[in-house]
Design goal:
The chain is globular. The chain folds into two domains: about 30-230 and about 350-365, Orthogonal Bundle (Citrate Synthase, domain 1); about 235-335, Orthogonal Bundle (Cytochrome p450-Terp, domain 2), CATH 1.10.230. It has helices at about 50-55, 55-65, 70-85, 90-100, 105-115, 130-150, 165-175, 180-195, 200-210, 215-230, 235-250, 255-265, 285-300, 305-320, 325-335, 345-365; strands spanning about 30-35, 40-45, 45. By secondary structure, it is mainly α. The mean pLDDT is about 95. Bound molecules: s-citryldethia Coenzyme A. S-citryldethia Coenzyme A binds near residues 270 and 321.
């Protein structure tokens, strides 16, 4: 079929034709505010810098779900509920043990999260409290799925969660099979805070779209994981690390500036840079950059951080583009021993709080999400029998 060129089509009936919905405001929300010019990120009233300095991931999760910070009793109750929900249902563990050891971790997380709906102990209702309980259950179990697969694929036994410690603590404990160090826990907790929520990104939009049909919260989370998996979205952090490891293969010849300039010459997108909304430094990258620097100095392995700074300068001078949340998170996770193909899973186990907060908000004031599409094909073609085609 011949397609018409957009320029030749009368689009007056389609005034909001913005590819990728760029610049379109489709919702109101109390979950976060992003000022792309100022480089400001607010979670339900609190600046990300304030939360990075004072909050725990569990307090941020409560803030996103309830639009306020928890009292001491409420925080203890949430921590107890997360601890009680961390253990995985046996069939999910059997799936993780039996699936291909070459499977992509995000694909395993997507499948396992979907399976959790078959074993949802939080009741069968679809009221707000039922969905909140499911949100808490997923937030508790996703780290266990990720850690379990990371070990099983290397021929190791799964480590069961322990009933003390934070989400960050338990994740590192289940992943490594030993008590995590205080610095590693603090680093992981801050990374979970920085990745928890970010307005109408592709995965959150996916989640709200699935919610808008009155489907269930597990379907919405599984769909969101699928969206986050892509390298233009959450998959960028893994791609950043793979890019740095590709550069490292050049050994003593490695030169980050020419490496990046070559890629730009070839019109390649440099992972970890640019953003649809931020037209300045991503405020989350400010904290991740500090962490990456501190960890590189602590470990004495400063090469990847130094290369990152050189790449940052090159992107600024060549394209006037700043890093986003994915750029320095790569070297932060690498510094605490996380395998690169697990980085996007860590993004997901944090962003499930933002996704589910948006699900609750959408469900409370729902309207089916159904935009339009401008048809550019031909119409009412004559039928041609197959023998004549
Ligand atoms: C996340 O939405 C969110 O909030 C997402 C997120 C969240 O917390 O949920 O912040 C998390 O997903 C961060 C983004 C992670 N993705 C990457 O790092 C992948 C690399 N980045 C690019 O693909 C890009 O910057 C996007 C996809 C993030 C945003 O792209 P846009 O808004 O669609 O902009 P564009 O692709 O139209 O680029 C505009 C110009 C182009 O130049 P020209 O073709 O006009 O000359 O900027 C250039 C692009 O080529 N450009 C880049 C670039 N990003 C934009 N050039 C090289 N490398 C890049 N990374």
């Amino acid at each position: 079929m011949n397609k018409q060129n957009l320029e030749d089509i009368d689009t007056q009936d389609y005034p909001h034709l913005n590819r990728g919905l760029e610049g379109i405001t489709a919702f109101t929300t109390s979950k976060s505010s992003i000022d792309g010019q100022k480089g400001e990120l607010i979670y339900a009233g609190y600046n990300i810098d304030t939360l990075a300095e004072h909050a725990s991931f569990e307090e941020v999760a409560f803030l996103l779900w309830y639009d306020r910070l928890p009292t001491s009793d409420e925080l203890d109750q949430l921590k107890n509920q997360l601890a009680a929900e961390r253990a995985l249902p046996r069939p999910v563990k059997e799936y993780i043990r039996s699936t291909s050891r070459e499977a992509e971790p995000m694909a395993v997380l997507r499948t396992a999260t979907s399976m959790l709906s078959d074993y949802a102990p939080e009741g069968s209702g679809d009221g707000e409290q039922d969905n909140l309980n499911r949100a808490i259950a997923m937030t508790a179990k996703m780290p266990a799925v990720i850690a379990a697969f990371a070990r099983v694929r290397n021929g190791k036994e799964m480590i069961d969660p322990i009933d003390r410690g934070s989400t960050a603590y338990n994740f590192l404990y289940m992943l490594n099979g030993e008590e995590p160090g205080e610095q590693a826990v603090k680093t992981m907790d801050l990374c979970l805070i920085l990745h928890a929520e970010h307005g109408m990104n592709a995965s959150t939009f996916t989640c709200r779209t699935i919610c808008s049909t009155q489907s269930d919260i597990y379907s919405a989370a599984a769909g969101a994981i699928g969206a986050l998996k892509g390298p233009l979205h959450g998959g960028a952090n893994t791609a950043v690390m793979n890019m740095l490891l590709e550069l490292d293969k050049q050994g003593d010849e490695a030169d980050p500036v020419s490496f990046i300039k070559d890629k730009l010459e070839k019109k390649e997108k440099i992972m970890g840079f640019g953003h649809r909304v931020y037209k300045t430094f991503d405020p989350r990258a400010v904290h991740l950059r500090k962490m990456s620097k501190a960890l590189s100095e602590e470990t004495g392995y400063t090469k990847l951080y130094e290369w990152s700074e050189a790449i940052l300068e090159t992107m600024k001078s060549e394209k006037n583009i700043d890093p986003n949340v994915d750029f320095f998170s790569a070297t932060v996770y690498y510094s605490i021993g996380i395998k690169p193909d697990l980085y996007t899973c860590i993004f997901a186990m944090s962003r499930v709080t933002g996704w589910t907060a948006h699900f609750l908000e959408q469900a409370a004031n729902n309207r089916l999400i159904r935009p339009r599409a401008l048809y550019t094909g031909e119409k009412n073609l004559e039928w041609t029998p197959v023998e004549d085609r």
